Amino acid sequence: MATAAGRRVDQGNADEAAAPAYDLSFLEALNPALEDLAKYGIKLAVNAGVADTKGLYDVVMKMVQAKGLDLKVLSIYLQLHIPIWQYSILS
User: How many CB atoms lie within 10 A of CB 49?
Assistant: First the structure.
């Protein structure tokens, strides 16, 4: 996770395209399973976006569209900016 976050930081600093800041192994596992997800109506929830949830969403959407599947893809973006010590005070 720290490596992916580091890649995300480097994306703004390099002229060349940096490696994605999401979990690439998830895409390798998802690709062959997409047809079965659609065929059997399987719902899948993952936390594989690491530091680039939008990037992962875009790639998954392209994969689904390329295969012509009728699947819904949802992406949730959460930003937690409250330090733990403040959270414990609020709860």
Answer: 21
Residue 88 buriedness (CB in 10 A; 0-12 / 13-18 / 19+)? exposed
1-29 pLDDT, tens digit per residue, is 445 555 555 555 555 567 788 889 999 99
| DSSP category for residue 50 | T
- Alpha-carbon distance 30 to 71, whole Å? 13
Query: Nearest-CA neighbor of 31 among 71, 77, 87, 83?
Result: 71
Q: What b/e sequence results for 56-76 when a residue is b if at least 16 CB atoms lie within 10 Å of its CB, and e otherwise?
A: bbebbeebbeeeeeebeeeee
Chain centroid, CA 51 distance in Å: 8
User: Measured between alpha carbons, how far is 44 from 33 in angstroms, rounded to an integer?
Assistant: 11
Q: Residue 19 is part of which domain span?
A: 2-90
pLDDT in tens, 30-57: 999 999 999 999 999 888 878 888 899 9
